[in-house]
Amino acid sequence: MVQRAKISEMEKCELLELFNNNYTNGLSVKFIANYSELLLRQKHHDKWKLDIMNMPKLRTFRCLETNFETQQYITTNMTRQQRSTLARMRCGTFPLELELGRYRGIPSNRRFCKVCNDNVSVEDEKHFLIKCPLYSCERNNAFADFQQRNNIDLSVLSDDEILIKLLTTDCKLVSNYIFNISKNQNSVTFSL
């Protein structure tokens, strides 16, 4: 019974043929182990990509992540708060109306920015970081600093490209920008 379960798992992973004596004759155990590891990693990577594509919440993450590897902001010397702020923005769990409205059962196209209060702009990551007029002063300062420090001209980029640059470059600066404008967001929302 246990032997059959092991064979079944090996079939799922397409590894059974490696252990067929006719096929592996002359191959070293190290080669077989390395090849098996490569196959298993590729299967896991493919499943990871498929899982990401099937989760609407990960809309921003999908446009940032192309490889299954440790991202720069994880290894950058930042405080826990800075890293958490950036991770939540990248993963779609930052408290924006697009996320908060899910819990209230509001259709995604009606999760408007409470700061703009125009009932037109859905508050998603792009609106929050790039478009919302309340944050224009902080945005202008942060973007000027970002452009100078990274030699990137944001004015020639689309909103999608700007979002990607912000969430993948100069992690500390961007995390501080997000944290600062979220404090403004909270003060305006609570005063409404």
What is the N-to-C succession of helices and strands? HHHHHHHHHHH
Number of helices: 11
Give the terminus-to-terminus CA distance.
65 Å
Report the C-alpha radius of gyration, rounded.
23 Å
Strand content: under 5%
- Determine the fraction of residues in helical runs and give it as a percent range: 55-70%
- Stretches where pLDDT is under 50 for at least 5 consecutive residues are none
Average pLDDT rating:
81
Number of strands: 0
What composes the largest sheet?
Answer: none
Based on CA inertia axes, which overall geometry fits? elongated
Structural class: mainly alpha
Question: What does this entry look like structurally?
Answer:
By secondary structure, the chain is mainly α. Helices cover 64% and strands 0% of the residues. It is built from 11 helices and no strands. α6 crosses α11, α8 crosses α10 and α9 runs antiparallel to α11. The longest helix is centred in the N-terminal third of the chain and has 25 residues. It is elongated and about 70 Å long. The protein starts with a helix and ends with a helix. The mean pLDDT is 81.
Topology of helices and strands:
Layout lengths: L1 H11 L8 H4 L4 H25 L5 H6 L7 H4 L4 H12 L5 H8 L20 H7 L4 H15 L8 H10 L2 H21 L1
Helix pairs in contact: 6-11, 8-10, 9-11
Kindly summarize this structure in a few lines.
This protein is an all-alpha fold.
Descriptive keywords:
192 residues
